[in-house]
Design brief:
two-stranded antiparallel ribbon; mainly alpha; 25 helices; 504 residues; single chain; 2 strands; Serine Threonine Protein Phosphatase 5, Tetratricopeptide repeat
Length: 504
């Protein structure tokens, strides 16, 4: 102990000299105290104090804004206690920006802030800049497309319709008119007025086909698909859309196919993979008959994914390989989903496969895809599951946490798989606080499903955490629950993994 004490005294001496003041460090009672007579200033507290004063007095905004130092403790995002404080400070900063009319800066912080969008649209319209107002709305719509089915508010849609209807040097284009119809249709969807939403989608679809508007055709098809999903009729609508799309030019067909991709993936992953596989087998022959490589690729992809969930790894590999080969000339979202599933098939088959090239290609596509918000979290999920070492896993988790810190840029329902995989990985690495952070995210999302494989996956993640905490009895009980639920959902691979983890 004496040499250690001497080393400590020496370190304190040099620290005092470096700080230039002898009373900079106080010692006593087994404690070291830094600047015992100093005044502690916390930038976050100072910002809160000045911003509260500015908002109450409706003055002094500039000083308060200068005190905002950015996100609170950005390196500790998985520490749950920081989240409410971080959110509060972010919202306070936005209040100040709104109070000063700094709408561009508001949108730099929150790209989906509709009040800021409307303010800028109003400003453009007052200056007679109809096209700038329309572009501002289109930017907002692009942001809101991140979460499938999210529409602008009614007042924002009304302002856009006003901009489209405003007389200018040039009449509104067919694309702008279709976008106005789609915006109202999505608003009706959010209000759960399914009849009106379907009518708007059909109107937009007719406009899109008449004027060869590829992107708008895809969005109209997506809205029709969502309405059908809500009514339990998605397979029928998809069958009809697919049969029509394979007769369209490739550009138009690809937008229709992408419109249904996320709905199909949700159906496959949500426990209805057998029915989706059967549907795809029934449509495959028609795609081959009319020489539609895109349609053939999509059906092979769906069949391959259904085979994977059924535990038929060799068959799944063959179907997915066929799909990937057909997708080569159309390296869009379908290819990315296929490559990700192929990586999972390889890992499940050998337990050692490291399909780095497939994952790298899928990530490249995801970054450029219209379905980026859905694909990125899916890609990160597979990367976490197949990381070859702890260093690589840490890099992937850091990227995942950075993505989750931008909630407007990811699809939260699609992120449940990432949350489960990250929680299990962190539990196995002994990072319990981090594991709890990810598990909490997964549990909140799992409430969207009543039973099924996602509920089972959350049980498995809870078991991993209990194991890391040393509660083997509870962990084994959770694994049994997960295995039983996976079995009921027709997931033999997942069931087998859970049962194998229970000591006999």
């Amino acid at each position: 102990a004496d040499p250690a004490a001497a080393n400590l005294r020496k370190a304190v001496h040099y620290a005092r000299r470096a700080l230039g003041v002898m009373n900079a460090i106080a010692t006593g009672a087994g404690m070291l105290e830094l600047w015992p007579e100093g005044e502690l200033q916390v930038d976050a507290e100072e910002f809160e104090r000045e911003s509260s004063r500015a908002l109450a007095d409706e003055s002094g905004y500039e000083l308060a804004l200068r005190l905002f130092a950015g996100d609170l403790l950005p390196e500790d995002r998985y520490a749950e206690w920081t989240e409410p404080h971080r959110t509060r400070l972010q919202q306070r900063n936005l209040q100040l920006l709104r109070a000063t009319g700094r709408w561009e800066e508001v949108l730099a912080v929150d790209r989906a802030d509709e009040a800021a969008c409307r303010a800028l649209m109003h400003a453009h319209l007052e200056k007679g800049n109809r096209h700038d107002a329309i572009r501002e709305f289109q930017r907002l719509r692009e942001v809101l497309r991140v979460d499938l089915g999210v529409a602008p508010e009614a007042s924002t849609v009304a302002l856009f319709e006003q901009a489209v209807a405003t007389q200018g040097a040039e009449p509104a284009s067919a694309s702008e008119r279709a976008q106005a119809v789609l915006a109202r249709g999505l608003m009706q969807w959010n209000e759960r007025d399914l009849v009106a939403a379907q009518e708007s989608a059909e109107h937009a679809r007719a406009l899109s086909i008449e004027h060869r508007l590829d992107r708008e055709l895809g969005e109209a098809s997506a809205l029709l698909g969502m309405v059908a999903m809500a009514r339990g009729r998605w397979p029928d609508v998809f069958r009809q859309d697919f049969t029509q799309a394979i007769e369209l030019p490739n550009e138009q067909a690809s937008f229709v196919f992408e419109a249904h991709l996320c709905l199909a993936e949700a159906t496959l992953a949500g426990g209805d993979s057998r029915a989706t596989g059967k549907l795809a087998r029934g449509l495959l022959d028609r795609a081959v008959e009319v020489h539609s490589p895109q349609g053939e690729a999509l059906m092979c992809q769906f069949i391959g994914e259904a085979e994977f969930f059924a535990g038929h790894l060799d068959s799944s590999h063959d179907w997915l390989t066929r799909a990937a080969g057909l997708y080569v000339q159309d390296s869009g979202s379908g290819l990315a989903f296929t490559l990700l599933r192929m990586a999972e098939v390889a890992a499940a088959g050998t337990g050692r496969s490291r399909p780095a090239s497939r994952l790298a290609e899928a990530w490249r596509i995801a970054a450029q895809s219209p379905l980026s918000a859905h694909l990125k979290v899916r890609a990160l999920e597979v990367m976490v599951k197949t990381a070859e070492d702890s260093k690589r896993r840490e890099a992937i988790l850091a990227e995942a946490e950075a993505q989750m810190a931008r909630p407007k840029e990811i699809c939260r329902p699609c992120s449940i798989g990432l949350a489960v995989a990250a929680s299990i990985a962190c539990s196995q690495a002994g990072e319990l606080a981090r594991a709890r952070f990810w598990l909490g995210h997964a549990e909140r999302l799992a409430g969207m499903w009543s039973g099924g494989p996602w509920q089972a996956a959350v049980w498995e993640a809870r078991a991993a955490l209990r194991t890391a905490e040393g509660d083997g009895v509870q962990a084994h009980a959770l694994l049994r629950e997960a295995a039983d639920l996976f079995a009921q959902s027709g997931r033999p691979l997942d069931e087998g993994r859970c049962r194998a983890a229970i000591p006999q």
